[in-house]
Amino acid sequence: MGCYVDVVAKEGCAEQVNKLWAKEFKGHLVYTPEIILGEIEFMKNDPQQAYAASIIHTVDDRNSNFTIAATNKGQVFIGSTNERLEQETVNLLAKQVKWILAHRLLFDSITGLDEAREEIGMNINVDAIISGKNIKYQPMSFDELPKEPNSEIYNHLVHHDRPDLWKSYLDYSENTDLEHWEVLRSNVIPNHDYLAQKTVWQKCELSAEENGKSYWQTQYGLTFPSVEIVTQILTEAARADYADDDSDRPSM
Q1: How far apart, in whole angstroms, are the C-alpha atoms of residue 232 and residue 8?
Q2: Collapsed DSSP state (helix, strand, coil) of residue 12
Q3: Which of 77, 131, 135, 191 has its CA 20 to 30 A from that of 111?
Q4: Dist. CA 128–CA 114, nearest whole Å
C-alpha cells in the first residue's frame, strides 16, 4: 500500500552511493552483492523465510526472483494510500529525495518523483530521470488500452477515469506474480463515497479475514491473491459503488 521513489545506481557506483547515503541517513540505499549475500544468509536461519531460502542461494537467484531488490536497486518509502504521515517524517522523506536528486549523476534511473510530488508535496517538475534525461509522463488513457465493454470492472473504471487501475489489473491477470502485485496492490478502488475508498490490498486482506487465504499464492515466502480473488473484489466494488444510486450506474 506504499508509494516509493525507486533508484538504480550506475554500474560501479553502488558502494559510493551507500557510503555517501550513510553519512546522512541510516542503513543503505541500494543493494550490493555483499548486502544481498548477507540477507541470503539471514534467510537460512529464519523459519518464516524457509521457502525463499530454498530457492535463493546466490546473488543471481535473488536478482532474477526478486527484481525490486536486485543489485544496484533501491527504494525510498514516501507515503501510504491510507495513512497520514507525521510532519517530521514528511520532512525526513523530502530530505532523502532531495539527496537523491542532488546525486543524480550516480544513478541510471530515478523514478516515482511524481509520487513524491503528490504524497509529500515536493516541488518537483519532472516525474522521472532516466539516463540523465528528465521525463514527464503523459497521462494514461483508456484509448490505448484493451476495451471490454461487457465487463463491470471495465465500465466502473471508465466511469471514474481510472485507466491506471485497469492497466494494472490487466497486467496482473496476465502475469500473476509478486512483482505485478506490488504495482496493483496500492491502487485505490474508486467509489463515489470518498470515505468508502480502499486499496486493492486492503480489500483483499478484508476478504482473507472472512474467507481465509486458501486461494492465495506464495512467492519468496510472501503471499498474494489469485487473479480470481482480485476480479471478485473489483466486481463487488463496482456493484457496491452504485448500490444506493442506480441512476449513476454506468451503462453496460
Answers
A1: 36
A2: coil
A3: 191
A4: 7
Helices 152-159 and 163-174: crossing angle in degrees, nearest 10, is 150
- The C-alpha cell at 181 is 502485485
At 78-97, the pLDDT tens digits run 876 556 678 888 899 999 99
For residue 107, give the DSSP letter. Answer: E
The residues near 166 (Cβ < 8 Å, ≥ 6 apart) are: 142, 145, 153, 154, 157, 158
Q: Rounded to an integer, what distance in angstroms lies between the CA atom of residue 152 and that of residue 35?
A: 46
Model confidence pLDDT, tens digit, residues 125-151: 888 999 888 888 777 899 989 999 999
Q: Please compute the mean of the pLDDT values over residues 154-176 and round it to a whole number.
A: 93
Query: Please, are residues 189 and 203 in contact by the beta-carbon 8 Å criterion?
Result: yes
User: Cell numbers at residue 24, please?
Assistant: 546522512
**Helix-helix angle 14-24:87-102, to 10 degrees:** 140
8 A C-beta contact, residue 43 and residue 30: no
Per residue in 83-119, is it b (16+ CB within 10 Å) or e — as a string?
eebeeeebeebbebbebbbebeebbbbbbbbbbbbeb
- Strands of 128-130's sheet in order across: 73-80, 2-9, 107-111, 128-130, 133-135
